[in-house]
Amino acid sequence: MVALALATSLLWGLADFGGGLLTRRMPALTVVVVSQALAAAVLGAVVLATGAWSEAGARLWFAVAAGLIGPVAMLFFYRALALGPMGVVSPLVATAVVVPVGVALALGERPGPVQYLGFLVAFGGVVLAGGPQAGGAAVRRRTLGYTVGAAFGFGAVLALIAEASTSVTGLFLALFVQRVCNVLAGGAALWAGARRGTPVLPDGGVAAVREALPSLTFVGLADVAANATYALAARIGPVTVAAVLASLYPVVTALAARGVLRERLRAAQSLGAGLALAGTLLLASG
């Protein structure tokens, strides 16, 4: 379970970094729709190959709900990444872990004392890793609004997708349904935006989108794989532990931004990353 949850944080961290970079070159909604459409195509092939259609049932409504909420959360998140430093936005969005953890506690799940301590340390580290930096006041308020919306949406998706299936093949089907709903909801918003005259293509038009297809494919598939590993981790072990470990992805995003974009980490952010890792060890040993 620990390995799956940590794999989730790695995949999400890399997907967030890639999505944030793409959003600086093309409209956020275009990134969401194209990357999720590519992911849906791959998942459709997996569903056909594994015969996952036989797992269809009432639980798929959880996947439908996650698929309708997901594009809005991703749009808010990518816009926040485009407006503010990735090393700040990503850790703050990771507070989404409060939603699935709260649901698990409400349903009666009770971690041990060491895991409670690990949860507090890791969560505090994730928030602290956000650091005190930001741009001007106007950008800060707008970025914060997008960040809060993304955090709540992602937390709801985590809670819903964990309930959407009871088997591995059922998980493939649930993820496919979720992505199809992502594309339908995001595509409708993209079409509505185009009708209002909102730019839906980057500079360079379709050719620029075609050139970015490898990166868009990576973002879409990494996000799908992260959802899958999280759902499996939540099924194997306590949801409270799996959710907190999976929420460590901002450390990956911040390190990628530091290495590629040369974004500077302040002392508070470095301390937060260290606390997040310490909390991980406590959660894994509890």
In DSSP terms (H or I, runs of 4 or more residues), the helix count works out at 13
Order of helices and strands: HHHHHHHHHHHHH
Inertia-based shape: globular
Strand count, sense and barrel status of the largest sheet are: none
Number of strands: 0
The low-confidence runs, each spanning 5 or more residues with pLDDT under 50, are: 133-139
Structural class: mainly alpha
Roughly what is the average pLDDT, rounded to an integer?
80
* Beta-strand fraction estimate: under 5%
The count of domains is: 1
Radius of gyration: 18 Å
Distance between the termini: 13 Å
Q: Report helical residue fraction.
A: over 70%
Structure description:
- The protein has 286 residues and is mainly alpha-helical.
- It has one domain.
- Helix content is 79%, strand content 0%.
- The chain contains 13 helices and no strands.
- α3 packs antiparallel against α7 (137-161).
- The protein is globular, with a radius of gyration of 18 Å.
- The two termini are 13 Å apart.
- The model is unreliable at 133-139 (pLDDT under 50).
Notable traits:
EmrE-like, EamA family transporter, mainly alpha, 286 residues, transmembrane helix, membrane, globular, single chain
Kindly summarize this structure in a few lines.
With 286 residues, the protein is mainly α. The chain has one domain (2-285).
